[in-house]
Amino acid sequence: MNRTLEARRGATHEALRIDALTKRYTTGGHEVAALDGASLDVRAGTFTAIMGPSGSGKSTLLHCAVGLDRPDGGSIVVDGIDLGGLGEREITEFRRERVGFVFQSYNLVDSLTAAQNVLLPARLARGALGREDALAALDGVGLRDRADHRPHQLSGGEQQRVAIARAVLTRPAVICADEPTGALDLARGRQVLDHLRAVVDTHARTVLVVTHDPTVAARADRAVFMADGRIVDELDRTAGDRLDAASIAVRMAELEEA
Amino acid sequence: MITLSMVRHRMRAILGGFVALTLAVALLTASAIVIASSLPAVPPRYERADALVVPEEAGTRSDDVTVVRAVWTGAEADSLAGELTRSEEVAVAVAERRFDVRVMDGDRVLGDAADGAPGGAGWSSFALGSTALLEGGAPSGAAEVVLPRSYGRAVGDTVTVLTAGAEWTMTVSGVTDGQDVLVPDPLAGETATGVSVIGVVAAPGVGTAAVDDLVRSAVRDSAGPTAEVFTGTDQGAMDAEFDDSGNWVGTQLLILVGALSVFVSVFVVGTTFTFQVAVRRRELALLRAVGATPGQVRRMLLGEAAVVGAAASLVGAVLGVGGAFLLGGWMVDLDLLSRHWEVRSVALPVAVSVPIGVVTAVTGVLSASRRGAAVAPLEALRPENTRAEAVPRWRLWVAGTAAVLGAVFAVATVRGDMEQAVSYALGTALALVVALAVAAPVYLPRLVGLLPGRSPLSDLLRSEARAGARRLASTMLPALLISALAVTMLGQADTLGGAIDEHSRGDIPGEAMVTRPDGGNGLTDLALERTREHAQGEVHSTLSTGVYVDGNWVEAVGLHRNAPPAGTAWASPATAAEFGWEEDDTVDLTWRDGTTGRVTVTVGPFPPELEMWAELALPHDLAREHDPGTFTTAASFDPLDADALSAVLADQGSEVVSTSRLIDEGVAAEMRLVRLFAVIILVLSLGYTAISLANSLSLSTSARRRDLALLRVTGVHRRQVLVLLTAESALVGAIGLALGALISLPGLFALTWSLRDEFDPRRGPAEVAVQLPWADLGAVSAACLVIGVLAALVPAVRAMRRSPAAMVAERG
């Protein structure tokens, strides 16, 4: 057993530590700073929403945080693992073992059934999980009876829920979602949020959501606000802040005016 | 299992590659079966012999290829055979008497013009073969004969049997399923020119090794020339030595067909999967995001290719096995294979073809899989990003290497002989095709960029070419390939044909020649005498024979016209120099029948009709005296009355034909073969082009549906979209055709250089020009363009039936 790793984990209780991330893109000849010293700690077992106007760097932060993208500077530690030192293969294995993904759309591989999609990361990792586990996970999102349907036979909301089932199956340290309700109508969006919330409340996982929708952020334990590649503000329910759609919308409006 | 699901899901998209590969493996399997079934083998007439003994090698014929062996006199051979027969381990040893024979029913020649060994033999040879007696029995007395079934006679029928010097009226005593005309042994002994093979059949229960030892020791102690022994201990050598099927032309064609199928299907499969990767970027990115390593993505794509490859190969192999019978039968009809060809080997060719198919599929996918593995996981989230891809360095390296290889082939073409040159010239073109194909994304946008015009259409074309260089490159490939093949193959056919027609007519004296009515060669002495009676001046007849000097083969000819004085020989200056002969020397030599003798030689240059091949000229009668078993090869002369002569030659199985017609027919036959090769290859390639174009264009059109929809939304008419696609396809096709033609030229010009020294050296290097069949090439090009435009339009028209909004909204 790795004592240092355990000790560090115990000491922080933090699923995610991001420190002074920088990331620059060059588009059309000029350089844009997508991240400019962003730092963020996320406690294990919480639901955190990252908010901000378009171009504030929230998606880039999320992508870097879970190893989909590489920062130019700064450090990321997920579940005690420093991503800075990992090669392409290691970071891929890190993703499939410690991170679950729910994207805005196009979450599922067309040729595979819902159950096969849920099982995909576990199979890629050659894990011991089988169809029963996939069915149990689908059961958790209320889709056990749709297990053998293909993505095109499922509604958008159902596809998102299959993605949630997939994200929780391998018990990852962090589940990240990028505008998970962006392509859904209100009722379906609420359903998906209910399931994400349940991931935190009943499975005690850590969820990180990027959104610009205050009603999504209102379901979180904590909302952090980004502007110009930095975290500029936050509302934390555990710290006693009001975290409802209205107050979040007001913060957002202030940011966009600033 | 993931791989399997994905293959099933994408079956329609993979269909193009699947069909191409199935066809390739079918062709490959069929070709391989036919080749394996036409590999050299001991012919049926010797199949039961446990050992075959032949005299040592003595040199080659004037073609520099056919090996000639020494010969035993009848007495030497009989003593060796007798000694072997006396051994307890030997059931029988036969000193085979073989000779030219023709069987007549009145004026009608029975049987076909035989290829391979002369068809007459003594009855004792029957014991060496696996041939079965179907009816009747052995010839008894001096006037009975056993005929092959194909002669269509029954036991008791009367036939006339002609040899070079005799004519026998004989009764059919038996009918076999073989090919030999078998006469009583004493007659065969009188007729045959020496003995060239002794066959040994072991007594029952005696092993191959024992026979081998026994025969070898007996041969060591025997008189006469040193002998070589072939037994089942080295079946390959035995097969190669005694094979007389003449299948090699067909085999060459098949090897070419098989190799081209594989070459082309690597391209088609590669294109299919490259598009797959382009179309599936989001899916691959999603896999990467949820934890597939680059290696897993690569292995998945290779696995898909292997699954598709295995399925296509198995289907192809089944088709190929059936196809082999058709292919073989067809090639037999075209005289590309021996008439006795049959499917002999299936398992091994299938076992070879199927893995080749799988490897072909995987090879085609190698680069696509690398690109697939390089897809970044983030692309799952940002599908709309168009990537300006740099051309990878390996493309330039591969292109450069292929170009160098092409140059090497071109040099080899110039230096090779005619047959090598033809293959190397094709190699030159194919290597350059690879170079141009691999480098296409680099130069193609620049070429299209040269397109003049300020219209929105040409602007759009230019910018599409810049953005989709790789897509354009893969639609150009088939046109490039077909054009290179068409120009090279048809150009070679016409260039060769022109050169042969112009330079190889030779110097045959006289207006007419005597041949067999069905095209075979050979005159009996009686036919030759009658020809001489009906000729103006002396007949130029050639009895092709040979003598041995110090054990070396000397190609000799028996002549009437220009013959040296009776009892003397006439050596060419080169021959005299080789053996150190002077005018009027009396020299020792061994005749074709194995007897030794002395002859006085004169030395002088040969006339043109002999110079190219003969080394020693003899009077006809002297040649005949020592080579009684061989028909006179040919006779050419100026006839007094051709019809009257034909009438009196009929019962000798000969007729009079005009020399120029014979030469025309000879050139035409040679050209037919060359053209046949070209046409088969072209038809195959056009088929592949159609599959591959339809495949890549329908894939690329479906990948571009959103672009097309966007054009429609922004106000472009349906018709304008179709015009754009037509123009693009035609333009790219035309570029491919032009480039393909261009890169064929180095090989063709190299071929003309190589051909300069292929003809009569007395006239100096031949002037050979590149000749191209413009009409045929035009037709091939037009077909290629039409296929290309249709392949672009059909999927586009189908895609645009839907409203632009629906197309835009469609998931990418």
Structure description:
The complex is a heterodimer of chains A (258) and B (812). Chain A is an alpha/beta fold and 258 residues long. Chain A has nine helices and ten strands. Chain A is globular, with a radius of gyration of 18 Å. Mean pLDDT of chain A is 83; it is low at 1-12. Chain A has helices spanning 3-12, 58-65, 88-98, 114-124, 131-140, 156-169, 186-201, 214-217, 245-257; strands at 14-27, 30-43, 47-51, 73-78, 81-82, 99-102, 174-178, 206-210, 222-227, 230-236. Chain A has a single domain (3-257), classed as P-loop containing nucleotide triphosphate hydrolases (Rossmann fold), CATH 3.40.50. Chain B folds into four domains: 1-38 and 263-384, no CATH class; 44-242, no CATH class; 400-505 and 670-812, no CATH class; 517-653, Barwin-like endoglucanases, CATH 2.40.40. In chain B, 55% of the residues lie in helices and 15% in strands. A nine-stranded mixed β-sheet of chain B has the order 20-21-19-22-18-17-23-16-24. In chain B, strands 6, 7, 9, 10, 11 and 12 form a six-stranded mixed β-sheet that branches. The A-B interface holds A 59, 63, 68-69, 88-89, 92-93, 95-97, 101, 103-104, 106-112, 116, 120-121, 123-125, 166, 178 and B 1-2, 5-6, 8-10, 282-283, 286-296, 377-378, 380-381, 383, 811.
SSE blueprint and pairings:
The complex is a heterodimer of chains A (258) and B (812).
Chain A: H1 3-12, E1 14-27, E2 30-43, E3 47-51, H2 58-65, E4 73-78, E5 81-82, H3 88-98, E6 99-102, H4 114-124, H5 131-140, H6 156-169, E7 174-178, H7 186-201, E8 206-210, H8 214-217, E9 222-227, E10 230-236, H9 245-257
Parallel strand pairs in A: 3-8, 3-9, 6-7, 7-8
Antiparallel strand pairs in A: 1-2, 1-4, 4-5, 9-10
Chain B: H1 2-9, H2 11-37, E1 51-55, E2 57-60, E3 67-69, H3 74-86, E4 90-95, E5 98-99, E6 102-105, E7 108-109, E8 120-122, E9 133-136, E10 144-148, E11 158-162, E12 167-176, E13 181-183, H4 185-191, E14 198-202, H5 208-220, E15 227-231, H6 235-242, H7 248-279, H8 281-289, H9 294-333, H10 347-373, H11 393-415, H12 418-449, H13 456-467, H14 469-503, E16 512-515, H15 525-533, E17 535-549, E18 552-559, E19 568-571, H16 573-579, E20 586-590, E21 596-603, H17 608-611, E22 616-619, H18 620-626, E23 634-639, H19 642-649, E24 655-658, H20 659-703, H21 705-713, H22 718-755, H23 774-799, H24 804-809
Parallel strand pairs in B: 8-13, 10-12, 18-22, 19-21
Antiparallel strand pairs in B: 1-14, 1-15, 2-3, 4-14, 5-8, 6-7, 6-11, 9-12, 11-12, 16-23, 16-24, 17-18, 17-23, 19-22, 20-21
Helix pairs in contact in B: 1-9, 2-7, 2-9, 2-10, 2-20, 7-10, 7-14, 7-20, 9-10, 11-12, 11-22, 12-13, 12-14, 12-22, 14-20, 14-22, 14-23, 20-23, 22-23
